[in-house]
Amino acid sequence: MTETDSSHGRPVLVRAGEAEILGDPPNTMELLADAETTGRLVSAIRTKIGKDTDGPPPHYHNEAPEIFYIVDGGLHVLTGDQVVTVETGDFLLVPPRTPHAFSTPAHTGVDMLIFKPGAERFDYFRLGDRVRRGEASPQEILGSQDRFDNHFHDSPVWRRFRDGRARDRLLTLPTHHDTASPPHRDATPSPPSRRGPRP
């Protein structure tokens, strides 16, 4: 049984196999807990994406960070004006108002957990799934940007990274503290640096 009310300090427990699943393998989204069921504390999903597959286009959130934990595989993630490659066991927090997008490398898919504090996300993902199945218009996604705090953003950095020549480059974030760039601006990415040999 799933306990789904933390408004009075009770735990929220979602048993394996009880969560709603959207999509079709290898690209699925398991809806674990949303702000409504966690007393507005967090939204949590488990996402699996096949290799060499794009996730959502560049976008940002005004109100909350987005947190990624890689259970298995790898992921290229746009984070402002940089691209970082995260792998099994890596944790990444993208601050509010920071443009981000992601795609899987050509050689591996990803199994990951995504958390967004205080956000209602399930209805947004359900809408995206209806668009995927041809049951809703992409215009409905565009019309829901304010409702779901999911604002689309053109990113020349991401377009250059995904142009086919750079698909499998391993890029890392700069090691110095970097303030999030405003959503309306992109800069030229810093030169890539390798994290080490990959199979």
What does this structure look like?
With 199 residues, the protein is α+β, with helices and mostly antiparallel strands. It has four helices and ten strands. The chain has helices at residues 122-132, 138-143, 145-148, 156-161; strands at residues 20-24, 27-33, 42-49, 59-60, 66-79, 82-87, 91-94, 100-103, 110-117, 151-152. The radius of gyration is 17 Å and the shape is globular. The model is unreliable at 165-199 (pLDDT under 50).
| Total DSSP E strands | 10
Question: What is the share of helical residues?
Answer: 10-25%
Number of helices: 4
Unreliable stretches (pLDDT < 50, length at least 5) are 165-199
Class based on secondary structure composition and strand pairing: alpha+beta
The profile of the biggest β sheet is: 8 strands, antiparallel
Distance between the termini: 42 Å
Kindly provide the radius of gyration, computed on alpha-carbon positions and rounded to a whole number of angstroms.
Answer: 17 Å
* Percent of sequence in beta strands: 25-35%
Mean pLDDT: 83
User: What is the H-and-E element order?
Assistant: EEEEEEEEEHHHEH
Assembly type of the chains comes to single chain
Shape: globular
